[in-house]
Amino acid sequence: MSKLLIVEDEAITGLQLEETLESMGFEVVGRAMSGKEAVSLAKKHKPDLILMDIVMPGGMNGIQATKKIQAKSDIPVIFITAHEDEKWLEQAKSLQTLGYILKPFNDYQVKATVEIALTRIELERRLKESESALKTERNRLEEMIQERTEELSIKTMNLEDTNAALKTILKKREEDKNELEEKVLLNVKRMILPYLEKLKTTKLNSSQQTYVDIIDMSLKEIISPFAHTLSTKYVNLTPKEVQIANLIKQGKSTKEIAEIFELSKRTIDAHRNHIRRKLGLKKRGGNLRTHLLTLR
Length: 296
Fold this sequence. Notes:
Elements: E1 3-7, H1 11-23, E2 27-32, H2 35-45, E3 49-53, H3 62-72, E4 77-81, H4 86-92, E5 97-102, H5 107-201, H6 206-233, H7 239-249, H8 254-261, H9 265-278, H10 288-294
Parallel strand pairs: 1-2, 1-3, 3-4, 4-5
Helix pairs in contact: 2-3, 5-6, 7-10, 8-9
C-alpha cells in the first residue's frame, strides 16, 4: 500500500482529503498544516507521495517546502492550489512534480491524479531497478570478458613459447640427424670401406667371397638413406663425384682419395675440377673443402 503525506493549512480541507484518500484504499501517514511541519513529517515518514498545498502561512510556502524536501530525498509531489496564477506554475517546473489538484476538488479528480502519479512512480522505480540490473549484468559480462581475454592472452603467450621451443627442438633434431648421417658415412667410408675394398683384391675362397659380398651389400643398405641425402646436395654430380666430394669434405687429400679408389692422382684432380665447375667455383683460389662444408 502506498504511503501519502497531506500538507494543507486548512484543517477541514486537509481532513476531508485524508478521508477521501483512505476511502480509496491509500494510507495517509501524516497531515501537516505548514511548510515547516511538512519538511519534518517527510523526513520522519518517508512517504511515497506528498500532496502539497502551494500557498501556506508561516514564512514557508509549498514550493519552498518541496525544495527543502527534495534537496535531501527524491519524494515526488502533487501540488494543491486554488490559484491559477502562472507564477506558481513557473516556479514549480524545476521540481519533481507529478500533477496538480485544483480547489475545490472532487473525488474523481483526486483519485485519478493520485493513481496516475503512483503508477508513474512505480514505473520509474521498475525502470531504475532494470537499469541497475542491466548495469550489474553489463559489469559482470565485462569482467568475464576481461578475465577471458587475460586467459587467452596467457594461453597465447604460452603457445608462442611452446612453438618457439618446438622449433628449437626440431631444428636441433635436424642438426643432430645431419650430424649422425655425416658421422655414419664418415666412419663407414674411413674405417670400413678401404679395408673391404682391399679384401676384395686378395685371394678368397668361395665362402669368403660370399661373406665379403654379404658385408658389402649390408653396408650399402645401411648407408643408402644417408647417401641419398648426400646426393641431393650435389644433384649435378655423378655417383663417383659424390663419393669424392664427401671424402674431400672429410679432409682427405688427393693422394688419400686416389689410394682409396685405386686411381691416379691425376684422375682425382680431374674429378676435383669437374666438381668445382659443377658447384660454380670458378676461381681457382676458392677452397673446395670449405665450400663443401657450407652445404647442409
